[in-house]
Amino acid sequence: MTNLQEWFASRYPMSYGASGLYRFSLDGDGYTSNGISALRVNGVECGGKDIPGCSSLFRRAAIGAPVSLSALREWAGEDLYTTGDVPEDCPDCEGSGRDDCPHCDQEMDCETCDGAGNTGKTKRGTIEAPRREGVVLRRVLSMGLLRHVLPDGDETVIVGGNPDPLAPLYIHGQGWTAVVMPIRESAQGRPVFEVAA
Predict the structure, then answer these.
(1) What order of strands is seen across the sheet that includes strand 192-193?
(2) Helices marked H in 36-185 — which ranges?
(3) What are the residues facing 118 on neighbouring strands?
(4) Contact, 27 vs 181, CB < 8 A?
């Protein structure tokens, strides 16, 4: 497994800002959250203040079953967020490729980017994978988001939570815990990761 501290820093590498991400330390552990998932890694200091309710998620008891981390990661598939080269949005149309005619107020192709929506240049940014949902312990989850909170390597992790399918899913590993909030959608027809009861 990669160093837990490096892995933690790579998941949500900034403090609260326009991205809606938040990192903080509490009692010697590092926490990070984007509002629909959260991580705690033991022994990481990163400053910041607890956001209401985040650290308390990790104090709740969760009953679970052992599963292979690599099997769960493989089932979850592609990470929801990756970093790569993304087109730089046109500053005039903000990436839409459309603008209002200055003479008649009708919509037309943006003159700056000729309707492309970008400048033709690229920048480093976050690429979001296509949306995919799956079911773990009766919870409908974003598979890409689940993959995002799972570290590399293999170990036996405990996957669990209370019986309510709208309650968070907990994944407890060696020195880390992830919490993923479910989606309020039907589980019917979605891929299922089987966890022994």
Answers:
(1) 139-142, 133-136, 192-193
(2) 54-57, 69-76, 143-148
(3) 89
(4) no
Q: CA-CA distance, 71 to 92, in Å (whole number)?
A: 46
Residues in the chain: 197
DSSP state of 136: E
Tell me the pLDDT tens digit for each residue of 109-156. 988 888 888 888 877 665 666 678 899 999 999 888 888 888 888 899
Strand partners, 142: 133
4-80+129-193 CATH, one of 3.40.50.620, 3.10.150.10, 3.20.20.100, 3.30.160.270: 3.10.150.10
Type of residue at 113: C
CA distances from 119 to 1, 84, 175 (A): 40, 17, 44
What lies within 8 Å, CB to CB, of 36 at 6+ separation is 142, 145, 180, 181
Residues 6+ apart with CB under 8 A from 48: 15, 16, 22, 23, 24, 25
0.70 exceeded by pTM: no
Contact 144, 78 (CB under 8 A): yes
What is the C-alpha to C-alpha distance for residues 46 and 15, in angstroms, rounded to an integer?
Answer: 9
